[in-house]
Amino acid sequence: MTSFHATTILSVRRGNEVAIAGDGQVSLGQTVAKSDAVKVRKIPAGQGHEVLVGFAGSAADAFALLERFEQKLKDSPGNIKKAAIDLAKQWRTDRYMRRLESLLAVADKTTSLMVSGQGDVIEPTDGIIGIGSGGPYALAAARALLNHTDLPPADLAREALKIAGEICVYTNTNITVETL
Fold first, then answer.
1. pLDDT in tens, the chain (180 residues)
2. Cβ contacts of residue 30 below 8 Å, gap of 6+?
3. What is the 8-class DSSP label of residue 3?
4. Where are the domains of the chain?
5. Taking a C-beta distance cutoff of 8 angstroms, is the pair 112, 121 a contact?
6. Which active-site residues does the annotation give?
């Protein structure tokens, strides 16, 4: 069976700003199935807050998780940590959800988190999250740019994804960026 490889998602935080960026490539085996997919969203989090979400992995699984995350945000308005932990618990224990193959990067004005199906909810020390096929490349580029430039998060994320797109065959440079 041919496997899907898709996505590079990068979240960058600097000061009071945060950005999540994603490339547009979805690959099926050695073929590009789609080059302009949008894998980042800005969603309402209640109490006038917004949350940025980026997803990597199976698209159908990611959308199922995104819907559940939105529901968890409604249950805990404005508290993405609680929503992410509740989602991770459900993801790990629910028989149907355990089969979902995806990762989420979520961020609001103060917090950035990576959420996985193994029950992980990780808040990075440096405010940078890289997930998906090209995640490690984008993460390394973002760390270097964060330490050696004054770029705002949106520009920094875009440049780091361009670098990842030049290295990873499952990443392209058709980039979508959302900011808070």
1. 344 456 899 999 999 899 999 999 988 878 888 999 999 999 988 778 899 999 988 777 778 888 889 999 999 998 999 999 999 888 888 777 767 778 899 999 999 999 987 788 999 999 999 999 999 999 999 999 999 999 999 999 999 999 999 999 999 999 999 999
2. none
3. P
4. 4-171
5. no
6. 7
Token representation of residue 168: 């990873």
Amino acid at 24: G
Q: Residue 12: what residue type?
A: V
3-state secondary structure of 10: strand
CATH number of 4-171: 3.60.20.10
Rounded Cα distance, 16 and 179, in Å: 11
DSSP-assigned beta bridge partners for residue 19: 12, 179
Q: What does each C-alpha distance from 27 to 43, 89, 113 come to in angstroms?
A: 26, 30, 26
Tokens describing residue 176: 């979508």
Write down the pLDDT at residue 1: 38
CA distance 56 to 138: 13
Tokens of 122: 């990780």
Q: Are 6 and 27 within 8 A, CB to CB?
A: yes
Q: DSSP states of 63-118 as a string?
A: HHHHHHHHHHHHHSTT-HHHHHHHHHHHHHH-TTGGG--EEEEEE-SS-EEEE-TT
